[in-house]
Design a protein that fits this description.
With 100 residues, this protein is mainly beta. The chain is built from one helix and nine strands; from the N terminus they run E-E-E-E-E-H-E-E-E-E.
C-alpha cells in the first residue's frame, strides 16, 4: 500500500515497535511515517506504522487517532463516524482514503 501512495521514503523513521497479529504471532514494524490523509470530509495528520505483510486492510487507524478525533468506530458494521463543524460524517471501511 505504501508503494502505491508515492510517499517520499526520506520522511520515514525506523521503528522498534511490534504488533500482535490476528493469529497471535508478533510482527515487527518496519518504519513510522506521519502523513496527511483525507478521511471523510477532513484532512488528518496520521502516524502510520508500516509493516511488510499481506493484509485484508490497507490501513488500520489506531486508538490514538480514534480518541483524538472523537470517532465512534463499529467493527461489526465496518464504519466509523465523527463530527466536524456540526456535521456527522460516516466513513465506510471499503471507501478509499486519499493522501493529500
Amino acid at each position: 500500500m505504501l508503494d502505491e501512495m508515492s510517499v517520499d521514503s526520506t520522511h520515514m523513521l525506523s521503528s522498534t515497535m511490534t504488533a500482535k497479529a490476528y493469529d497471535g504471532s508478533l510482527r515487527k514494524m518496519v518504519r513510522t511515517i506521519k502523513i496527511e490523509i483525507f478521511i471523510g470530509l477532513q484532512v488528518f495528520l496520521v502516524t502510520l506504522q508500516v509493516m511488510d505483510i499481506h493484509s485484508s486492510y490497507n490501513t488500520l487507524l489506531g486508538m490514538p487517532w480514534i480518541h483524538a478525533v472523537g470517532t465512534i468506530a463499529s467493527s461489526l458494521h465496518q464504519f466509523l463516524k465523527y463530527i466536524v463543524n456540526g456535521t456527522l460524517v460516516t466513513v465506510k471501511a471499503e471507501e478509499t482514503l486519499t493522501m493529500v
